[in-house]
Amino acid sequence: MPHDATPLPPIAILGAGSMGGAIARGLARSGLASDGVTTTNRSRAKAAELDGLDRVTSVALEDAPTGNTDAAAAADVVLIGVKPAMVPDLLREIAPVLRPGTIVVSLAAGVTVATFEEILPSGMPVLRSMPNTPALVGRGVTGLAAGTHASAAVVATVRRLFETVGTVIEVPEGQIDALSTISGSGPAYFFLLVEEFTKAAVGKGFAEAEARLMAEQTFIGAAALLEASAGDPAELRRKVTSPKGTTERAIAVLQGARIDAAFATATDAALARAKELAAGA
């Protein structure tokens, strides 16, 4: 959680889907959003999922057609959480009502700062963010890239906002796609490892429920140990790996399978696809 308890300014989250909703929940938990958060969703059902959060007003556009412009006009920080293809239209809709100096933050993958700055009023501070799904449980990693007009003070405000759902890493915009292959896609790589480890346990004769429990809790426990330790992963691995023991034999097989090359190639493939998507392919 952030150490700075200064209240955050009024915030609007337009298109508060799973990621925008996670941020609304983080802000509500943090107690920093004393000036309020307004979220918008197209349907009543989606808006209802965010009802009752502290200091959060959840608006359904089917009930309030001007909900996006009303929220944007009253906010000092506007998060854009709609699908990437819908971003330009939403920006054109809200641009006339934004007050000078309003901070606009993209949650949309693949939409560049340049796209935002072209549509919004000249000089408006824009940032591009790339949160990941563990933000849903307050353990996210968010990449944050400042646009042309985002001052250090603006970046600090947005950083504190995202720190309500985890850790923030500031990068130049050119690194956002690379970051997405690590922290953005990374949870899927981890879940794949747990899946395969579970299958290995089933292959050793354990029932599915036992196998899952062992695999999942071993990884979760190892992550907690890593977080609580001053050492790096290689050092912790050496502590588990007795010379000439069983773990050493297993690690040798994994290293022989070139797990290092597999991760490098996998993240390269994800980065190539990110560039294709950015080019509209």
From TrEMBL:
Subcellular location: Cytoplasm
Domain Pyrroline-5-carboxylate reductase catalytic N-terminal: 11-110
Enzyme class (EC, first level): oxidoreductase
Pathway involvement of the protein, from the record: Amino-acid biosynthesis; L-proline biosynthesis; L-proline from L-glutamate 5-semialdehyde: step 1/1
Keywords, alphabetical: Amino-acid biosynthesis, Cytoplasm, NADP, Oxidoreductase, Proline biosynthesis
Family: Belongs to the pyrroline-5-carboxylate reductase family.
Record's protein name: Pyrroline-5-carboxylate reductase
Organism this protein belongs to: Microbacterium arthrosphaerae
Name of encoding gene: proC
